[in-house]
Amino acid sequence: MVVSAGGAVAQKGAGVSQIRGGVSIIDTATNRLATGTIKTGRFPSAIALGPGGDRAYVVNAGGLHGGNVSVIDTASSRVTVRAIAVGRFPEQIAISPDGLRAYVADSGSNAVSVIDTEANELAAKPISVGRVPIAIAVSPDGGRIYVSNAGSDTISVIDTATDKPATRPIKVGGYPLAIAITPDGSRVYVANVRDDTVSAIDTAAIGQPVKTIKTDDTPSAIAISPDGRLVYVANARDDTLSVITAATNRPASKPIKVCGRPTAVAISPDGDRAYVSCLASGTVSTINTVTSKPAAKPIKVGPFPLGLAVSPDGSRVYVVKN
């Protein structure tokens, strides 16, 4: 099985134990846990919030016969849907801008599952993509899905109106593990674990050479500031956060030192904070993006924190623990 954070580290020789986990919630006003662990399914790996923040969708890798998605009501912090069945070894999830569809990258099925979020069931047949799809993102207008195929070193581009390829797969670096889109949809950034690079794709010039940006060792997660100016890349083996200026595709500063084995990064809605989950310490670090220094002490969340999501009002950070 390939798990987003574990997969990044395993590519360079380190293993990660798998245990049953769930979701913890951090209150950003106090930098403390707001609840106990919300149990979801077996081996949760990623989380995404609906556009209004009222629902959280958690990917559970499950077992050999398939994984599933749990739905949490964020007002009550309760699981309202235990298991929407998807493909084998699902990894990451993205929600359409209108909130009506959830797209899940099924790494063991080489496909994307499409969930109707009103009916909480599959809306269509799985969409075939490349080998070992892991990361997934939806364009701001909802018209396209971008899927990183770690086993093919490509990005699949899917037209959401037809659920078919919009272009040929785009060649990127080795073992693309994470993906993010600028708020205006003009660029897609892809973290390539095996090459220690980020690929920058101009969405208006697909088919043209892709810009390659060097990072620290094992870039495993990526996020973009709300204004689209900065790209943040978590480097799992160097324990750093690279910062790239989107306008130039060059480093904006020296890498920021963070806690051990960063596996996910998320940015607050105002852009002032970067939250980084760290596998080695079981913590989430808060970075002041203006000063590039810690804004608070690391928050202990428990073993193997992986995916992160920040509520639309910035008051909560949701942490998936495996």
Verbal overview:
It is a single chain. The protein is mainly beta and 322 residues long. The protein is 2% helix and 51% strand. It contains one helix and 33 strands. Strand 8 (90-95) and strand 9 form a beta hairpin. The two termini are 13 Å apart. The model is unreliable at 1-19 (pLDDT under 50).
Properties at a glance:
322 residues, mainly beta, five-stranded antiparallel β-sheet, 1 helix, 33 strands, globular
Largest sheet: 5 strands, antiparallel
Helix/strand-derived category reads: mainly beta
Average pLDDT reading: 92
- Strand segment tally: 33
Assign a percent range to the helix content.
Answer: under 10%
N-end to C-end Cα span: 13 Å
Percentage of residues in strands: over 45%
Count helical runs. 1
Principal-axis shape = globular
Radius of gyration: 17 Å
Care to give the gist of this entry?
With 322 residues, this protein is an all-beta fold. It has one helix and 33 strands. The chain has one helix at residues 4-10, and strands spanning 22-27, 32-33, 38-39, 44-49, 55-63, 66-73, 78-85, 90-95, 101-106, 111-116, 121-122, 127-128, 133-138, 144-149, 154-159, 164-165, 170-171, 176-181, 187-192, 197-202, 211-214, 219-224, 230-235, 240-245, 250-251, 256-257, 262-267, 273-278, 283-288, 293-294, 299-300, 305-310, 316-321.
